[in-house]
Predict the 3D structure of the following.
Amino acid sequence: SQTIHQWPATLVQPVGSPLSLECTVEGTSNPNLYWYRQAAGRGLQLLFYSVGIGQISSEVPQNLSASRPQDRQFILSSKKLLLSDSGFYLCAWSRDRPLDYTFGSGTRLTVV
Amino acid sequence: AQSVTQPDIHITVSEGASLELRCNYSYGATPYLFWYVQSPGQGLQLLLKYFSGDTLVQGIKGFEAEFKRSQSSFNLRKPSVHWSDAAEYFCAVVFTGTASKLTFGTGTRLQVTL
């Protein structure tokens, strides 16, 4: 069966520090991968998506970047965190046929 | 422009009462439609989805949703709400030709009073 792993579950980081959140998928190949962010009291905003290794599309300009070094690995990074980067980050994967999405359990990031 | 809207930010209902959460979209064709629920501090759970066919869709936990093309809506309903239904509910849409990107509404927070 397919599973998605996202870690860490919680993270407290000082302003200006780097960030690396990792997401891995098991049990499938060539998934579409996504990073979403949910800021406090707001909906889910798509940050990045990837349809293949090394293929990253950014949805909004920001202080973050994403990489897909392997087929089932998706990494969200920042060189220097801002207070505004605080939020709940969700990784997800999808397949096209049938269209279905699976979300990770999320990472709550607090930048202090 | 393609968009999805949840007009109600916060709804309060009494336990046992019926519930309807609204979702509207703006698109020239029929998108793929989803409803998710998020309990506090948790990830997302799929309640139901609509791609085509019967416009009344049954989901988990006693929820249903009806697709109305003429109104560009996909409202979520439940005949009798339980206290455990208190959560945040998200309508989400995939607009065809967008690399299967799931676009979320801003969410509706449901509070259930006893």
